[in-house]
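So, who can interpret the following?
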Amino acid sequence: MMTKGKYHTAFPVLAEKAPVLKDEPMKKHTSFRIGGPADLLGLPENEAQLKGLVKKAVLLDIPVTLLGGGTNVLVSDKGIRGLVIVTKKMKTGIAIKNTTDDHVVITAGAGEKLSTVCRFAAAGSLSGLEFAAGIPGTLGGAVKMNAGASSGSMASIIESIKILEPSGADFKNIAGRNLDFEYRNLNLSHGSIIVSADIKLEHSDSETIKKAFDRNLKLKNSSQPVSQASAGCFFKNPVHGMPAGELIEKSGLKGMKINDAMVSELHANFIVNTGHAECKDVMALMNHIQKTVFEKYHINLEPEVRMEGE
């Protein structure tokens, strides 16, 4: 087990390269509002700062954990050892990169909110992101998690991405056709960091796009606990049969609580933090859900939420 505070001596060196915080509570940086302290937390605002942080971390043999907007992640109560890099401040603006009669490619930094990218597309009468209405988090996180809904996912619209290689030495562009997307994940070399993405959209009627956005947003707001602290859908949907939320609901688990962690009464595939839930509460509830669903349906529910920390 790594010792808490072991990496504090690297603080002055890392802080020369980018804004860095020491013993920063991760509950401040996750949508679950859960998580103990990170030894060091870097908030790079541009590619140069990001590269400097990663290169120094590699040189000093400091483990690096990457976060975007902090959605879809559960951090342990003991926190995270080493350096956490949060890319939500890496905003280079959103711009049209090129256009043809059929398509428009827009480009944006990884730290841009996905909702901001959606609004940019809608304002420009560009179709393809309507499925993302209401999905929280950053563009980089959405690409890495292959965020989506029943009507689409990021995999279908990514033209290319720009990454920083794990060594921190070089940036690299990867064409969409060469990306290994799967359900709620993009497989990248361990330690690779998405810094920007090019998105391929289609010309369409602005009113049609607006109606689709509004419809999807209304559906999400009415069927999911968007006003409560959560990490989004907690479990992956099984390949066949009922979705995870239905399995959990039919197992009689809606509204079940362990301390302040609760199965949402609105959508059973959400675990919500109703006050001061800790990671141990969420984990205990997760284990109970998995055990109950398996006993009733012989299905192993796999978490969609990423676990980080000790």
Summary: The chain has three domains: 8-86, 94-223, 229-308. The radius of gyration is 20 Å. The longest helix spans residues 279-297.
